[in-house]
Amino acid sequence: MHNQLQEKFRLSVLSLIGVVSVLGITPFVFIRYFQGNTLAAIVDLVLILGIVTLVGYAVRTKKTRVVSWIVAVFINVGVFAIVLINGVDSFLWIYPAIASTFFLVRPIEAIVINIILTISCVFFSNIFELISLVSFVITILIVSVNTYVYASRSEKQFRLLESLNIVDELTGALNRRAFSSDIEQALSIAERKNTPYMLAILDLDHFKMVNDKYGHAVGDQVLKDLVTITTDNTRKYDRFYRFGGEEFVLLVPDIKKHQAFIQNLRAAIKKELKTPDGKEVTVSFGVASWLPGATADSWLKSADDALYRAKANGRDCAVFID
């Protein structure tokens, strides 16, 4: 889910830059061609075709991170080439190139690219015969600092939005929205690579009694403790979601000894999850392995059926459907 949000954001930025590039640069292709500046017209045309091709590739492959980097470098190299060819007549194109770089790559990466562009212009172009070098450096610095601050704040706000979008506010586990996205991705990977996946539904036993006896504040703490214990006893790439109320879902990739994995987790929860007076809180598991041809609904239903059987068997146990 996290990657998908970033992917959509980068894709929107790439698409916008593609549209702006076509609308902004295309007139100069004709202007420079009819002025007899064929080389500059060719560079402008290559910029347009290159950016459009790269954006199209990003839309088709979803490799937005790599493409954003290539587009950022491509734009800066293109602007540098235009400045070398046209000199002071194309000097102002440096500023939009610097600003756009901050929207394509991370702020610190944009700073590095912009420093390289600035140094290249200082040492290899002849524009400073007509333009003050000091003014150029200061204006570039002002544009870079302001854009860096804006891009950094935007990146922080985007990360906060991502967190609010996919994380359960109470427990810190991933939420149902994240699960809906991740299970589709898991199914795709499992089908393509025949990767062994496991889906487990966890339900706290007699949780209503905990709330009734100790209050909802204690009940909330029990839910938080469950997430902490589960996270501590699973791998960093296993995904744990709050599905609703006291029901959670665990999505585990590349797992073979899944029964031992679940039994160890169940034992750890039973040992560590306690009420304020030290009474244990147990969990029932319904576990379903991935099978070829499974859909999100069918896979989830298999795990839910297994959970129903675990509850019927007296709770505090795990039922596996392979």
Automatic annotation (TrEMBL):
Domain GGDEF residue range list = 195-322
Please report the name of this protein according to its UniProt entry. diguanylate cyclase
What is its cofactor? Mg(2+)
- According to the lineage, what is the superkingdom? Bacteria
Q: Which reaction does it catalyse?
A: 2 GTP = 3',3'-c-di-GMP + 2 diphosphate
The UniProt transmembrane annotation reads 12-33, 39-59, 66-87, 93-123, 130-151
State the organism's lineage: Bacteria, Pseudomonadati, Pseudomonadota, Gammaproteobacteria, Chromatiales
Assigned keywords, A-Z: Membrane, Transmembrane, Transmembrane helix
* Provenance organism: Rheinheimera salexigens
Task: Kindly indicate whether the keyword Transmembrane belongs to this entry.
Answer: yes
PROSITE patterns in the record, alphabetically?
A: GGDEF
Q: Which GO terms describe its molecular function?
A: diguanylate cyclase activity
Which SUPFAM superfamilies does the record match to this protein? Nucleotide cyclase (SSF55073)
According to the UniProt entry, what is the EC number of this protein?
2.7.7.65
Pfam families membership: GGDEF
